[in-house]
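Class prep. Sample record?

___
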Amino acid sequence: MPDFDFGTLLNLPDIHVTGTEIDSHGNFLIYAESTKKGTICHVCGKEIDKPYGHDREVRIRHLPVFGRDCYILIRFPRYQCTHCDKKPITTQSVSWRSKNSSYTQSFEEHILLSLINSTIEDVSLKNGIGYDAVEGILDKQIKAEVDWKEIQELYLLGVDEISLKKWHKDFVSIITSKKKDDIQILAVLKDKKKDTVKEFFTSIPKRLRDSVRFVCTDMYDGFVNAAKEVFEGQVKRQ
């Protein structure tokens, strides 16, 4: 196989690809090791860098590669804390995977975006993962807080509904931002009520609210009115 930087293809920082293969199910397997040094102690919260072997190998679903389902197989290094009296051991965490998740954050974002104008059942079937797995990704996003410090501007906000089950009236709302062709998921809200959406809009720091120029929604009154009441005179609705 010619020399090729699979790490660049995967767009995952701090990993080195050590091997690849296609399994009997046609899945693309990528064997990797972490190039990141150290981690944060799960007890005291301080940075630690004393090596203590590696954890068991984990299999993490990533975005498709060459049209095949892709899995990262990796053993994360472990580190011993020299600050705590009992010297606990912590397995390294990485920016591209939520703690103990079976999926990369890129794959979870792909699932969330696939849910727009679709249902959990449909996305589950199309991506070959269980209904509970899709629901778990969605639920985790609902509980997550937005790290506004990481966002420079918003420009265009999108507000869409996600149906939890086909033909049912249970919905959540997904809020996205878009600049050029880059779509970023900001939050998933527990329902699609106007007050819930408005509360989220008003929680956006003023410096970012001022950067919004468009709000893209369907004709649902709750979304439209929430945008009008927060961004009136500032934005256009698409």
Observations:
- The first strand starts at residue 15 and ends at 22.
- The longest helix spans residues 131-143.
